[in-house]
Amino acid sequence: MLQETVIDAVDRQLVNALQIFPRISWMQLGKILGYDATTLARRWARLRNEGLVWTVCYQQPEHLEVELPAMALIEVDVRAGQREQVVAALAPLDEVIEIDRTSGSRDLLLTVVHSSIATADAFVARNIAGIPGIRATRTRFAHTLYKDGARSHLDALSADVLLALRRAAEGFAGEPSVPTPLLVDVMRSMLPDARRPAPEIAAELGISTTSVTRAIHRLFGSPWFTAKTDFAHHALGYTTAASLWYRVPTPELAAVGIDVAGVPGVRMSAAILDRMNLAITVWLRHTHDLESLLTRIEHAHPRIELCETWLIPSVAKRSGAVLTDDGRFSHQISTSHALAPIGAQRRER
Question: Is 322 exposed, middle or buried (0-12, 13-18, 19+ CB in 10 A)?
């Protein structure tokens, strides 16, 4: 288990800043945070090398006017003693973007993204249900994602620093564009590292550094592109997570889902096509913090009903990143083609 002291206050500010603007230069970031640029670069390199932080990027199809993919939350029951063998079989599957080890009556909770509900159902039957060691699966489909990990940030920076970072990000963004072949190629090259140097990408693609730099600016100005900085949550003092399943009156569902998304610690909030129609994932520094969080939600929304609560002791895969047993980054599995076909164009009106 990673200890909270692995990452200090400066590291927390660094990680938080790169969540706001993953591509910022060390010199610019040093001026905003008040630290030496070389020091920040050295700290980031250490954190990355130890698997405590990483960056990824991917397409978001809701901004492409293409057919939205289906997102399914899959409960998995595993035969005794075979959970890790099942995790090892699931981790390489591109469509399985998250794998949580859970408490209670199920052993794993998977997030699966596929092109449609029908193909997602077929994928689960064909590629998951038959894995040796799996006893049963249960599928629930999400229809609205109010918050995901890309919009889940630490709270380590002052308001004026956050404002400076957002202004820097806005200044970096180029003119928005549809996913042209060049932008797609550059994005592919950045999939494992959103901070990958432009000259390195240019050498890989056989084009000029200027073309790559211009493409990166356009990517960061395009709403269909997302770059995310993530971290080993135990290293920042989160000892566990919890999955909360609510029943919300249908007319209130969107308002509750959006409001809950703003509660500190909430990483995911999604509307589900099920009797339990709102799923929430929250990170906890201590298990006893869950009681106050539940109380806060229920006081704000007295008509909702908490149906199930599961602890998530550890995560095997998150946003396509395969993690070690202690939550460190191991390697990245591309998820972009699951979220949307890379290079998907806008639908003709």
Answer: middle
Residue that has been written with the tokens 């990355």 in this structure: 48
Burial level of 334, CB count in 10 A (0-12/13-18/19+)?
middle
Prediction pTM value: 0.86
Among 155, 152, 123, 151, smallest CA distance to 139 is for: 123
User: In which residue are the tokens 């949550």 written?
Assistant: 233
pLDDT at 4 over 50: no
Provide the CB-side half-sphere exposure for 311 (13 A, CA): 15
In order of 55, 68, 226, 267, the CA distances from 144 in angstroms are 25, 11, 18, 15
| Number of neighbouring beta carbons within 10 Å of residue 199 | 12
At 39-98, the pLDDT tens digits run: 999 999 999 999 999 998 877 755 444 445 788 999 999 999 999 999 999 999 989 999
